[in-house]
């Protein structure tokens, strides 16, 4: 197999780019501590209402400026569907679904989770800006999908 | 078409096509079937865009909108893009490697009819209890709870069509490995043949995952299994894994053959050897290899944990490198070439920047940390339309125009082709470019309506206008295809002054393709003969008898059997007799086929000598 000199140079550039790419992303991923939504715990979707913490959905204070928000999703709504959060606080969202796969997205932030029945998902976010945020379901869940939302106010 | 030239009656032409095992006629069947579903999927897209032209629109009901969006995705991927690619593969690959047909002509025909009946089955759902409404991804448990028989049509229809695809994939692997002409080594194969080979390998490994997933879905819905129902101990996430283990290689199955088309079109119309042929081959193999390790990037927000997310993010980004190599190889091929701006070339030139934008948004989405801002928004919709329409669909049209003379012996009107390109291309960018911004502004996908006063109105309106331009473009192209065939003006066997073997024989080729198998002396064999020889391929064998397969009606009956059986399984109760009839036809045909000695026939040497011409493109 004969290769033109320029082709060889070009292949070498490609391989170097590949290595540079992998190293950069590897450092980003493992050394910079990237924390995606993840909980890895399970829950029986039929007994969500009896299982803590989902037996008492809502906002709970767990420390100085630290809160936990437990939410239950069901076609086509969020419980609770209106939340107020003090400005500058760090909130851990703990969510699950009672029926089908839903989404949990707070528009304008990086909070975005898939909420699968039988599984718990969680994510942490610090609200630095005051204002009204919209919580959306972004995972197609049926005929009322476009209406499924909740309000979150940071004051 | 050679059949019309003989003034055959409509009945005999129809019978010929129903029973044909000739790869060139099967290509035409795939083209007709695929284009029909392309128009259907396009109409569904128009309904979606009309619904979203203004806020709070009620042009469609919410339920009907969900059915339309599900069927748009399913139809375009499984029933339009893949069959149209198979049309190109069937017409080009056996000719490019100097073969007289594919390895298994019977299986080739069976593959087409399975796809066709699967597609028809899926669309029968419109008239029976409503179409599937769980999205083309059919995420469980929504697909388990979906009422009516829509999702049953999805699972059984796709299962039947999927069998066809698997068979076509296996057939092309065997054909390319076994049936290359003397001298056609692997590293002399045209790139379209290479990408067909790799895409077929992907089909072979990816489709079984879909088959398994669809079987489980069917059994969950129809026979009380609980694979995906979490209330009864099933696990819904397994469906997502199975679907995307199939679904991600699937997008490479779609894009690699399109890369192959452009790798044929660009050297031909730049009058230059393809730059970096060997790196193109390695890049193709590498993309396919990585393609199997990235499926979970569709599931970054599921909560798989930081390690899983990072590994899948790294693997996904790695794919950008071989793809980038390909992009620059095409640019370097163009550099210094004597470029002819024919319509396939214009499609290729439109493809390069469009696909690169899609690739860039792909890297953005691949970065798991950034994905939380895009996941399930219109940004994703814009991204995959940029790669699938900007890559695969432009590739299909380029290939269709390029190989049209080989299929029909006529040339599409170039002026109308250019009109088609500009309408479609401008319409495409109007439709989808602005959807990036809609997504970044927070508009989630698959929403029946969007609210007023959220700043989403203008971009949605522009998007719909763009969709209409694409529709007008497509109408121009359909008109062009029909008028070209009505006029029927024949062209030579090599109208583009091209480089590969398929152009060394007449257009359309005789049913046995090559009178004598050609001797291949290097990459771009015809070009070598044009520049160093007398412009004709040298034969690798003396003129002799040619063995040909017989036509068969069995593939049609087998596929019809599965089609009928599908309804029996779906409606059960007093409809079980349909399943009995259907499976009876199916297995009966298999037994018939197994016990019948069908040895084909020979074209005798004397008859070949009597035919006019020397089998070359003149």
Automatic annotation (TrEMBL), chain A:
Species, as recorded: Tenuibacillus multivorans
Membrane-spanning ranges: 9-31
Superkingdom per UniProt: Bacteria
Pfam families found in the cross-reference section: COX2 (PF00116)
Keyword annotations: Copper, Membrane, Metal-binding, Transmembrane, Transmembrane helix
Name assigned to this protein: Cytochrome aa3 subunit 2
Annotated Basic and acidic residues bias: 41-50
Record-linked Gene3D superfamilies: Cupredoxins - blue copper proteins
Domain Cytochrome oxidase subunit II copper A binding: start-end pairs: 49-155
Classification via PROSITE patterns: COX2, COX2_CUA
Reported function: Subunits I and II form the functional core of the enzyme complex. Electrons originating in cytochrome c are transferred via heme a and Cu(A) to the binuclear center formed by heme a3 and Cu(B).
A cellular component annotation (GO) from this entry: cell envelope
Example of a GO MF term: copper ion binding
Automatic annotation (TrEMBL), chain B:
Residue ranges of every copy of the Cytochrome oxidase subunit I profile domain listed in the record: 9-521
Record's bilayer topology term: Multi-pass membrane protein
Single GO BP term: respiratory electron transport chain
Subcellular location: Cell membrane
PROSITE patterns: COX1, COX1_CUB
Reactions catalysed, as given in the entry: 4 Fe(II)-[cytochrome c] + O2 + 8 H(+)(in) = 4 Fe(III)-[cytochrome c] + 2 H2O + 4 H(+)(out)
Entry keyword set: Cell membrane, Copper, Electron transport, Heme, Iron, Membrane, Metal-binding, Respiratory chain, Translocase, Transmembrane, Transmembrane helix, Transport
Pathway assignment: Energy metabolism; oxidative phosphorylation
Classification via InterPro entries: Cyt_c_oxase-like_su1_dom, Cyt_c_oxase-like_su1_sf, Cyt_C_Oxase_1, Cyt_c_Oxase_su1_BS, Cyt_c_oxidase_su1_bac
GO cellular component, as recorded: plasma membrane
Class of enzymatic activity (EC top level): translocase
Parts of the chain that traverse the membrane: 27-48, 68-93, 105-128, 156-179, 191-217, 237-262, 274-295, 307-332, 344-370, 382-404, 416-438, 458-482, 553-571, 577-595
Molecular-function GO terms, alphabetical: cytochrome-c oxidase activity; heme binding; metal ion binding
EC code(s) of this entry: 7.1.1.9
Principal cellular location given in the protein's record: membrane
Summary of the function given for this chain in its UniProt record: Cytochrome c oxidase is the component of the respiratory chain that catalyzes the reduction of oxygen to water. Subunits 1-3 form the functional core of the enzyme complex. CO I is the catalytic subunit of the enzyme. Electrons originating in cytochrome c are transferred via the copper A center of subunit 2 and heme A of subunit 1 to the bimetallic center formed by heme A3 and copper B.
Family under the similarity heading: Belongs to the heme-copper respiratory oxidase family.
PANTHER family: CYTOCHROME C OXIDASE SUBUNIT 1
Xref: NCBIfam families: CtaD_CoxA
Protein name: Cytochrome c oxidase subunit 1
Lineage of the organism: Bacteria, Bacillati, Bacillota, Bacilli, Bacillales
């Amino acid at each position: 197999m004969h290769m033109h000199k320029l082709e060889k140079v070009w292949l070498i550039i490609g391989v170097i780019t590949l290595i540079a790419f992998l190293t950069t992303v590897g450092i980003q991923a493992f050394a910079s501590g990237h924390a995606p939504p993840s909980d890895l715990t399970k829950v029986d979707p039929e007994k969500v209402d009896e299982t803590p913490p989902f037996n008492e959905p809502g906002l709970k204070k767990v420390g100085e400026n630290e809160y936990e928000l437990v939410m239950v999703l069901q076609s086509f709504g969020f419980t609770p569907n209106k939340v107020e959060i003090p400005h500058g606080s760090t909130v851990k969202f703990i969510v699950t679904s009672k029926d089908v796969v839903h989404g949990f997205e707070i528009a304008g932030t990086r909070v975005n989770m898939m909420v699968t029945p039988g599984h718990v998902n969680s994510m942490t976010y610090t609200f630095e800006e005051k204002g009204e945020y919209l919580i959306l379901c972004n995972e197609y869940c049926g005929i009322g999908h476009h209406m499924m939302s909740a309000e979150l106010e940071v004051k | 078409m050679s059949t019309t030239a003989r003034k055959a009656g409509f009945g005999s032409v129809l019978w010929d096509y129903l029973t044909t095992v000739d790869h060139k006629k099967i290509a035409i069947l795939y083209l007709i079937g695929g284009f029909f579903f392309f128009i259907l999927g396009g109409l569904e897209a128009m309904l979606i865009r009309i619904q979203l032209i203004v806020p709070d629109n009620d042009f469609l009901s919410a339920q009907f909108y969900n059915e339309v969006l599900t069927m748009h995705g399913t139809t375009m991927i499984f029933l339009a893009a893949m069959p149209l690619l198979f049309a190109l593969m069937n017409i080009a690959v056996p000719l490019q490697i100097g073969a007289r047909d594919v390895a298994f002509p019977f299986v080739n025909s069976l593959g087409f009819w399975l796809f066709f009946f699967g597609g028809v089955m899926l669309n029968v759902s419109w008239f029976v209890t409503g179409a599937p409404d769980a999205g083309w991804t059919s995420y469980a448990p929504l697909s388990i709870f979906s009422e009516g028989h829509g999702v049953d049509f999805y699972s059984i229809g796709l299962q039947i069509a999927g069998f066809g695809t698997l068979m076509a994939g296996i057939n092309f692997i065997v054909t390319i490995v076994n049936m290359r002409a003397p001298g056609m080594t692997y590293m002399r194969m045209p790139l379209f043949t290479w990408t067909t080979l790799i895409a077929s390998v992907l089909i072979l490994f990816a489709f079984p995952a879909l088959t398994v997933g669809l079987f489980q879905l069917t059994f969950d819905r129809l026979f009380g299994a609980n694979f995906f129902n979490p209330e009864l101990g099933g696990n819904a996430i397994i469906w997502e894994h199975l679907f995307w283990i199939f679904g991600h290689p699937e997008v490479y199955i779609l894009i690699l053959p399109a890369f192959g088309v452009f790798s044929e079109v660009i050297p031909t119309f730049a009058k230059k050897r393809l730059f970096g042929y060997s790196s193109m081959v390695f890049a193709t193999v590498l993309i396919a290899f990585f393609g199997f390790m990235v499926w979970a990037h569709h599931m970054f927000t599921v909560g798989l944990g930081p390690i899983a997310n990072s590994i899948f993010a790294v693997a996904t980004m790695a794919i950008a490198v071989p793809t980038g190599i390909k992009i620059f190889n095409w640019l370097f091929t163009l550099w210094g070439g004597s470029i002819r701006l024919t319509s396939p070339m214009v499609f290729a030139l439109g493809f390069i920047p469009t696909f690169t934008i899609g690739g860039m948004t792909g890297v953005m989405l691949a970065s798991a940390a950034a994905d939380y801002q895009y996941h399930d928004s219109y940004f994703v919709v814009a991204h995959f339309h940029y790669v699938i329409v900007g890559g695969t669909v432009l590739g299909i049209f380029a290939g269709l125009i390029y190989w049209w003379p080989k299929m029909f012996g006529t040339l599409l009107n170039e002026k109308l082709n250019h009109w088609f390109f500009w309408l479609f291309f401008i319409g495409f960018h109007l439709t989808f470019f602005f959807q990036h911004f809609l997504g970044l502004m927070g508009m989630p996908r698959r929403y029946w309506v969007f609210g007023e006063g959220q700043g989403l109105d203008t971009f949605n309106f522009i998007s719909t206008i763009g969709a209409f331009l694409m529709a007008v473009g497509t109408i121009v192209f359909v008109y062009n295809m029909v008028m070209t065939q009505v006029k029927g003006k024949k062209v030579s066997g090599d109208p583009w002054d091209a480089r590969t073997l398929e152009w060394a024989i007449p257009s359309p080729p005789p049913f046995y393709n090559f009178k004598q198998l050609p001797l291949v002396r290097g990459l771009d064999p015809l070009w070598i003969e044009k520049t160093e020889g007398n412009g004709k391929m040298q034969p690798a064998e003396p003129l002799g008898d040619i063995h040909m397969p017989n036509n068969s009606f069995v593939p049609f009956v087998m596929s019809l059997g599965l089609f009928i059986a599908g309804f029996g399984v779906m409606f059960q109760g007093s409809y079980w007799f349909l399943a009995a009839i259907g499976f009876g036809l199916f297995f009966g045909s298999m037994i018939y086929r197994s016990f019948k000695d069908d040895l084909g026939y020979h074209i005798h040497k004397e008859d070949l000598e009597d035919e006019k011409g020397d089998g070359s493109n003149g």
